[in-house]
Amino acid sequence: METRDALRTALTPALTPAQHAALRHLRIRGTAGRENALVRIQAMERAGGTDPDALVSLIRVHSRITLNFHPDRLLANSLTVAESLSQDGRYRSQYETGISNGSRTAVPGGARDGWEEQLFRGAYHVPGVRPSERPKYGAVNLYDHPHGAAPRFGSCHVRLLPEVSGRTTYCHGGSQDGPADVGTIDAFACVLAGLLEDDPAAAGAIGKLPYGPAGGLVPGLEPGRKLDEFVEAQVHGDLDLATDAEALVLDPSFRGTETDRLLTALARRCGIAVEWHTGFVLKPDEVDAEFRGPAMVPLAARIVATYAPAGILDAEVLGRAAASVVRKPETWAWWGTRDEVLQYVKQLWHVLVRYGRQERTAP
Q: Is-contact 69 224, C-beta < 8 A?
């Protein structure tokens, strides 16, 4: 019987000319900036004595890219993300799904389209490039956060195998900001320099790789609350969970739901692990009135009153509200248009990540 390793080798996706061009462009930029990046790193007082090559080697071998997603959000075809994933095990980009938990502008001529044109020097803008060729966005979990490297983009995440880094481009911070520090795993010094300038303590975190138990469920480990500070990863080529992932990590609010059933069955078929992090919960009166704006407090109260008899806001409750906004926007008209209310729900998720308590024990 063919082993999973052999299957993964046999099914490693062949990259298209556009994908090769995107990788090549960022590899060239990363290589050109290497010497200056090394000077920047050595000039950091708190990072003095850091061996950049040793850190990059640890990242290459032991770190994991995570792709955060909300499994219960509705796609343009009315399927949930979990239902779509369960059909064929393929993780799709926002150009294919029609949804995004970041910028909702992944359309020709949209803001995301413009950012990609600039970042990849038009690699995906030549005639004939299909939406399915566009990169899939994640982040590098350098701190081993149990909720993934970029929880702002979703309550659950796919944890990829380290081999995927060979077809991944990176930037420090979000690609929407036109980042200067970019590269590939074999030209990573600029990205590392940008990271260490923002957070010199990252050198110590990387130096602890490899981390402990799978999924980061270490007693006392700080939850992942990073909303804006991360190393973004753009994975080029198809992403098939059976060949490219090692685990699906789920929010405990979905335990016992249809989302749980679908994703657990999918993981079993793909031969990957299912893990659970500790989730985030808040009561409406615990919602901060300043962070993400004053509308968050009454919105939390409305959502909890409608969808949470126990009076607790969590990822699953927010997902039911988001589905209602899509299916019955007229019931939310007081709050604004459908897209405006979905933006509010997204911002309320950010509040939950930033301030939520971890009251659940990971199963």
A: no
Alpha helices in 72-178 (DSSP H): 81-88, 94-97, 111-119
237 burial class (0-12, 13-18, 19+ CB within 10 angstroms)? buried
Residue 17, both tokens: 């000319």
Angle at 17 between CA 11 and CA 19, to 5 degrees: 70
Structure token digits, residue 297: 């407090």
C-beta atoms surrounding 173 within 10 Å: 20
Cα gap 57→61, rounded to integer Å: 6
- Global pTM exceeds 0.85: yes
CA gap 120, 338 in Å, rounded = 32
Per-residue pLDDT tens listing for the chain (363 residues): 345 555 454 456 789 999 999 999 999 999 999 999 999 998 886 655 678 999 999 999 998 999 999 999 999 888 999 999 999 999 999 888 876 544 455 567 678 788 899 999 999 999 999 999 999 999 999 988 889 999 999 999 999 999 999 999 999 988 888 899 999 999 999 999 999 999 888 898 898 888 654 444 444 455 667 777 889 999 999 999 999 999 999 999 999 999 999 999 999 999 999 999 999 999 999 998 889 999 999 999 999 999 998 999 999 999 999 999 999 999 999 999 999 999 999 999 999 999 999 865 555
SS3 call for 112: helix
Task: Tell me the three state secondary structure of residue 68.
Answer: strand
- 231 DSSP assignment: E
d(C-alpha 313, C-alpha 62), whole Å = 35
What is the phi/psi pair of residue 37, to 5°? -65, -40
Say how far apart CA 268 and CA 193 lie, in whole Å: 40
Neighbours of 178 (CB within 10 A): 13
Kindly tell me the burial class for residue 103, based on how many C-beta atoms sit within 10 Å of its own C-beta (0-12, 13-18, 19 or more). Answer: middle
Tokens encoding 166:
């060979």
Neighbouring CB atoms inside 10 A of 268's CB total: 10
3-state class of 257 per DSSP? coil
Residue 248 to residue 197: CA distance in whole angstroms = 32
Tokens, residue 103: 């910028």
**Residue 233 bridge partners (DSSP):** 138, 170
